[in-house]
Amino acid sequence: MQGYGIIQNGQLVRVNPGYPGAKPVVYEDVPLFDQETHYVVQCPPVDAGNHIYMGVEVREMEQVDDGEMGEEMPV
Hints:
Layout: E1 4-8, E2 11-15, E3 23-27, E4 38-42, E5 46-47, E6 52-54, E7 56-60
Parallel strand pairs: 3-6
Antiparallel strand pairs: 1-2, 1-3, 4-7, 5-6
């Protein structure tokens, strides 16, 4: 089912197809990535003329030294 929206104050607002200025919303597919070292965030909406594009960005997680393997963490 195709979703429609408008951009208000830099944010995507979902609306019905008949709403004034409504455009189809196209979401970028999430690419394959290493879930142990990276995460995905959704980018701000972009007015691409005949549709609104919602991209994604893969970012690297900050490495946290939480002790050596096998060491119990305090509760």
